[in-house]
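During the no-cost extension, the postdoctoral fellow (Dr. R.K.) reprocessed legacy sequence entries with the updated structure-token encoder. One reprocessed record is reproduced below for audit purposes.
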Amino acid sequence: MSKKSRSKNLTIVFVILLAAILIFNYFESRKGERTFRKEVVSIDTAKITSIKIYPEIKALKPAKGHVNIVRTGNSWRIKNDSIDAQVDNRKIKAILTYLVSMKPDRVSSIEKSDWKKFQVTDSLAVRVKVFNNKKCLTDFYIGKYLYKKPKVKRFDNSGSLYTYVRLADEDIVYCVQGFLKMSFTTDIRMLRDKNLLKLKKHSINKLNFSFPDNSSYSVIKQNNKWLIGDKETDSLTTDKYINSLINLTNSNFIKDENKIKLSNPDYILKVEGDNFKPQIIKAFKTDDGKIILTSSRNKGSKFDGDKLDLFKRIFVEKQSFFEKSKNMRKKKK
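Re-encoded structure tokens follow.
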């Protein structure tokens, strides 16, 4: 065989080997992509219209017990047969932060046989589905958490929390940083907005109380003094009352709120001021003598006015503002 023929054959062999190496490397890189993602979940939050969270054990029964969070304009609400309520801004922010970029710390397993160990099976995991209308953007399982002690001793001795996560259409189990079950909780009370009032103290200049027994009155701020009519109230007592309003929260919601129909309120507190829309709390007496409160700040929520004396702490008698006692005189129901 001539040198020219041998050279030609070697060139052909080299080309074939090079092609084989390139093809092998391509499929290996694709395999790597399948086993280790740069981000387990990454979604444009502007596209999200609803988030469904299914509890452990009931994950196979989506019609029962799941939390349905729906975008309504610029706000988020929990909607089901019993309630239609606002979501706490901090809670939805935490959920969306994970959905924007949930990055894996490592791959914990690629075997289906390990799902139970990491609690990412249908029955053991919290399942999360995210939608753009009817299109499912992501579907994943949240398993057990892992606590890691710090490698170097710290002054607060705090470590790091991780959570095992699996995408619904994959066998791979990822370990991601954070305690995801705290954010993706199925405890509706934990997710709900608990504010009745949220105000800036320096902006308030009027409290208007409406009572059913002709004892209605207004407390008005003039020249840095609080007045009822032309009489100045006790400054410390008034200040204490206003402090109780500016971040008024309560988690005692009425059961089956959607089923309760309310008509005309028996009591009204209207808080007015500069640079904010008036916030209003209404109180309704039920036939059995109980009190239900609603808030313009937290539309859709109905609070138990009897628990923790919530009604009595809000609706106080006029004379209370002139007293220097520790406790304001509460309005009798």
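The chain has seven helices and 19 strands. The CA atoms of residues 85 and 300 lie 5 Å apart. The remaining legacy entries will be reprocessed before the final report is submitted.
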